[in-house]
Design goal:
By secondary structure, the chain is α+β, with helices and mostly antiparallel strands. It has two domains: 100 residues, Disulphide bond isomerase, DsbC/G, N-terminal (Nuclear Transport Factor 2, Chain: A, Roll), CATH 3.10.450; 138 residues, Glutaredoxin. It is built from seven helices and eleven strands. β5 and β6 form a beta hairpin. The longest helix has 39 residues. It is elongated, with a radius of gyration of 25 Å. About 8% of the residues have low confidence.
């Protein structure tokens, strides 16, 4: 390499480094501005977890209170709630971001605290958090029953009151918990089971609170995708198929 080329290369590297530093400082300056102005002007605003650029020039994502997504200009003069759509790719960037933030690493699930139900070859895997008194869960169970070749990890998640806790205890302590679950979801009742260690149910509730599982049913696929609410058989199949890609 000639001396001229060396000098050019050094100059290019130096300029790139300056640009990177300037860009970082610029972004940090706007982040500080947004934090300061929003906090001062809206003191009741939940904790700001993160501020980051979006693909739209001048628009910043403001993540609040865990996974709540808002948008702001560079000075925190405006706060926007809604979906950011990429019209070129026809993608809902807000939904994609929320899905990423809400994902749960499947390997982190405490499967020892779940009731395992195997259908067919059991190759596909799905975790479900459910309350025995949840009407949407009962509807979901009817659709889930049509899905074959899957292993279901059922996490008892009694969040609808004491009766839910009592039924969950009787399911967990039953001789055949899977059959007991099917009974309570089909008939709405279950016989009292002998006393047993129910600390797994308490751990499920603690896990759910940690990951902000606020409703039932909540599904977790093998790829970490989380789906709140009762979905039908076709949607369950799609969730399983997407997770296996």
């Amino acid at each position: 390499m000639t001396r001229t080329r060396q000098l050019f290369a050094y100059a290019f590297a130096f300029t790139a480094a300056l640009c990177c530093v300037a860009s970082t400082a610029w972004a940090q300056g706007h982040e500080a501005n947004i934090r300061k102005n929003l906090s001062e002007r809206i003191p009741q605003l939940p904790k700001i977890e993160e501020i980051s650029r979006t693909p739209m020039a001048g628009l910043y994502e403001v993540r609040l209170n865990g996974n709540e997504i808002y948008y702001s200009d560079a000075d925190g003069n405006f706060l926007i709630q809604g979906n950011l759509i990429d019209t070129k790719s026809r993608r809902n960037l807000t939904e994609e971001r929320e899905a990423k933030l809400g994902a749960i690493d499947f390997a982190s699930l405490p499967i020892k605290d779940a009731i395992q139900i195997v259908r067919g070859n059991g190759k596909r895997k799905l975790a479900v958090f459910e309350d025995p008194n949840c009407g949407f869960c009962k509807r979901f169970e009817r659709d889930l029953a049509k899905v074959e070749n899957v292993t279901i990890y059922l996490f008892l998640y009694p969040i609808l009151g004491q009766d839910s806790s009592d039924k969950s205890r009787n399911v967990w302590c039953a001789k055949d918990p899977a059959a007991a679950w099917a009974q309570v979801m089909g008939e709405g009742r279950i016989a009292n089971a002998p006393a047993c260690d129910t600390s797994a149910i308490a751990r499920n509730v603690e896990f759910g609170r940690k990951f902000k599982i606020t409703g039932t049913p909540t599904l977790v696929a093998q790829d970490g995708a989380r789906v709140p609410g009762a979905i039908n058989t076709q949607q369950i199949e799609k969730l399983l198929a997407d997770a296996s890609k």
